[in-house]
Inverse folding.
């Protein structure tokens, strides 16, 4: 299955998807903004809103998670370093998932749970390479993977640049137009990458 085109394309775009989620949320934090719009200090101490306010006021941890999310999302999106990105992504998203089920986040645990499962699937996908971390010998080469085509690295860099520029420069009314470019660019990259697939089969 790992040598077939469609599963490989699915993995590439799955990395883009969850990588984008981390990059976007990290940019919100770099702007010094709360994750929520309102100050949650007056809410009950066991509420999710109060937790987010405490999280925001921690400063150092707030910035640490910001940097960690941006680096991890970037590694996944660039594809060439996606294996490392998946390894770093797992403890972060696991922590976030546990937080969302510990408080009343309504439907948020579904989203974070899917992101956790997706990350575990990415690690499973690359397990043959990653198992050297457990002193186990790889059995197959992944040199023929589509992800090794530089087109995906360039496409990931475009996604990252567009997201950062749009979030930092454009206002909330115009940012939607910039983000409409993402699926268009993604589709164009998919067409180009698919046409180049014979180089990696």
């Amino acid at each position: 299955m790992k040598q077939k085109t469609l599963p490989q394309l699915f993995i590439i775009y799955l990395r883009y998807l969850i990588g984008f989620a981390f990059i976007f949320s990290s940019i919100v934090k770099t702007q010094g903004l709360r994750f929520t719009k309102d100050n949650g200090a007056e809410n009950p101490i066991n509420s999710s809103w109060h937790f987010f306010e405490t999280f925001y006021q921690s400063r150092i941890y707030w910035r640490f998670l910001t940097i960690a999310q941006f680096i991890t999302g970037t590694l996944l999106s660039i594809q060439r370093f996606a294996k490392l990105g998946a390894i770093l992504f797992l403890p972060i998203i696991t922590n976030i998932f546990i937080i969302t089920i510990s408080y009343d986040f309504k439907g948020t645990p579904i989203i974070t749970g899917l992101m956790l499962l997706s990350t575990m699937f990415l690690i499973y996908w690359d397990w043959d390479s990653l198992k050297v971390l457990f002193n186990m010998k790889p059995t197959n080469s992944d040199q023929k993977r589509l992800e090794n085509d530089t087109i995906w690295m360039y496409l990931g860099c475009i996604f990252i640049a567009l997201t950062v520029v749009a979030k930092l420069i454009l206002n909330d009314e115009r940012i939607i137009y910039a983000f409409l470019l993402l699926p268009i660019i993604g589709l164009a990259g998919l067409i180009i990458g698919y046409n180049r697939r014979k180089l990696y089969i």
